[in-house]
Design brief:
Elements lengths: L2 H14 L7 E2 L1 E2 L3 E3 L4 E7 L5 E4 L6 E8 L7 E9 L4 E3 L2 E12 L3 E12 L2 E6 L4 E3 L2 E10 L2 E3 L4 E14 L6 E8 L5 E5 L4 E4 L3 E3 L2 E9 L5 H4 L2 E6 L2 E2 L5 E5 L2 E9 L6 E13 L2 E12 L24 E9 L4 E9 L1 H11 L12 H10 L7
Parallel strand pairs: 5-7
Antiparallel strand pairs: 1-19, 2-26, 3-18, 4-5, 4-17, 6-16, 7-15, 8-14, 9-13, 9-16, 9-17, 10-11, 10-12, 10-15, 18-20, 19-20, 20-24, 21-22, 21-25, 23-24, 25-26, 27-28
């Protein structure tokens, strides 16, 4: 066998050593659910004509702008941004606040009337910045919108439209104008709101030997993005779990499962678990639950834990490649060790047990792997 084939065989053997384990269910003393309706921001992204709204600062990756010159008269539509909401719920009476950065160019200033319109399903609210707002240099246009209590239904649209009119430039130069900017961390245009964003359900823990599995369901209209585009974590008895959780898609959300090892000094007890989720800097969502946990015997019991769906590959993974080569004068001997952690390692573990699984979606790589293998000439192995 050549060195190249030896390296392939070693990697495959290492992957096949990973197996699934049956799990003993553990009782929990209290339900872990949230969330109170905290204020958060929806950030403006995308082109002005059909932009998007996102609660994730991680999505602020590309800068967009609309430039208005003195030659433009009447009403000017700066942009429209929308999102289809995936979580039904009530929202309270509140004053929402719209903010968008601006830069005045080649003019001492500009006087404008600015208006923001908010569609929540079939309901419309409007706010303005007051008559004759005078802007100089750079800053933010800030517009409050009084929103009356109501209900958002699943799959209804939340839409924000921003317009200006009655522009009057002071001492304009040849290239005078005002630039409205959004979509990046440097120019984070947004609207602050009180609205149903996510529901957190901390499920009953399961035990396998000295390993405990804590599943948490995040239900929102943003699917797995609620986890992969946020930062978050869990602690048990005030000690953070350092290993990355296993994330799998579920209806209307994502299930995130943390794995914790019971300390050798104890076999059972009540353990408080604290979970936090940070979709944006100004918003930290927390939930907790107390579990009554008893260490189980390997292979014992009839319960089990295993991802029912294909784990997500998103959420961050580190790839380390260690290449050790030596030359004896005639040939080069090379040993390659590949280490993968995070979401990709969990996806590989699960996938090795599901190669050719016809119940997976048609675009699943693991379902189609057997087909791919049939198309590879045996001479390539």
């Amino acid at each position: 066998m050549t060195h190249r084939h030896q390296a392939r065989a070693a990697l495959l053997t290492a992957l096949l050593l990973i197996t699934s384990l049956p799990i003993l269910p553990a009782a929990a003393e209290a339900e872990g659910a949230c969330c109170e309706m905290d204020e958060f921001n929806l950030f403006l992204t995308g082109e002005a004509e059909n932009g998007g709204l996102t609660p994730f600062e991680a999505d602020l990756e590309e800068e967009f702008e609309t430039f208005v010159t003195p030659s433009v008269q009447g009403l000017v539509e700066i942009g429209t941004w929308s999102v289809v909401w995936g979580l039904q719920g009530n929202y309270p009476d509140a004053t929402w606040e719209f903010r968008i950065p601006f830069e005045v160019e080649a003019a001492a200033g500009i006087q404008i009337n600015a208006t923001i319109g908010v569609h929540i399903g079939g309901t419309y609210f409007e706010g303005d910045a007051g008559a004759g707002l005078f802007l100089t240099s750079n800053g933010e246009v800030v517009i409050p919108v009084n929103v009356e209590a109501g209900e958002i239904l699943k799959s209804e649209t939340v839409e924000i439209s921003f317009s200006v009119r009655s522009l009057s430039f002071s001492s304009p130069g040849d290239d005078a104008g005002i630039r409205f900017i959004w979509g990046s961390t440097d120019y984070p245009a947004k609207i602050s709101m009180k609205f149903p964003l996510v529901e957190i359900d901390m499920k009953e823990a399961s035990v396998k030997g000295r390993l405990v599995f804590f599943p948490i369901v995040l239900k929102s209209g943003f699917a797995d993005r609620m986890w992969s585009a946020s930062t978050g974590g869990m602690s048990v008895a005030n000690t953070a779990i350092s290993d990355r959780p296993i994330a799998t898609p579920v209806n209307d959300g994502v299930e995130v499962t943390f794995v914790w090892e019971i300390p050798e000094s104890t076999d059972s007890g009540n353990f408080r678990t604290d979970f936090h989720l940070i979709p944006q800097t100004s918003l930290r969502i927390e939930a907790y639950r107390t579990h009554d946990i008893t260490a189980g015997e390997d292979g014992g019991g009839s319960g089990g834990w295993y991802p029912a769906a294909e784990p997500l590959r998103s959420g961050g993974s580190a790839l380390n490649v260690d290449i050790d080569a030596s030359f004896d004068g005639d040939s080069v001997e090379r040993v390659v060790i590949i280490e993968i952690d995070g979401a990709m390692s969990q996806w590989i573990r699960w996938g090795l047990d599901n190669i050719g699984n016809d119940s997976l979606s048609s675009n699943s790589w693991w379902r189609n792997l057997r087909t791919y293998a049939d198309s590879i000439p045996s001479s390539d192995f």
